[in-house]
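Entry 12.
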Amino acid sequence: MAETVQPIRPTRLMVAEGSILLLPRHIKLRHDAGRDAWVLLAPERVFKPDDTAVEVLKLCDGKRTVGDIASDLAERFQAPRDVILADIVQMLQDLADKGVVKS
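Predicted 3D structure (tokens):
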């Protein structure tokens, strides 16, 4: 009897405080001088992140954890770390689901 082989399904990246994220090589964060705005350039897509997202994405360098980023932003903006952490985990999860950030 032949075995039934199940296709391998890609696992979903779950963003958490200990996650270390970066932009994939095919995604670029650039300042568009014509629009005077930051944009994320992806194949056949352009995202226009808000100012907060830009600050977070600049720190997604493949070295810092999401917790490190939250601590940095909490200190810089004098805001509660737990609130910032919850907000950026949600934002980064949405971007991970779209393939904009990876671990």
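Annotation: The chain has one domain: 22-97. The radius of gyration is 16 Å.
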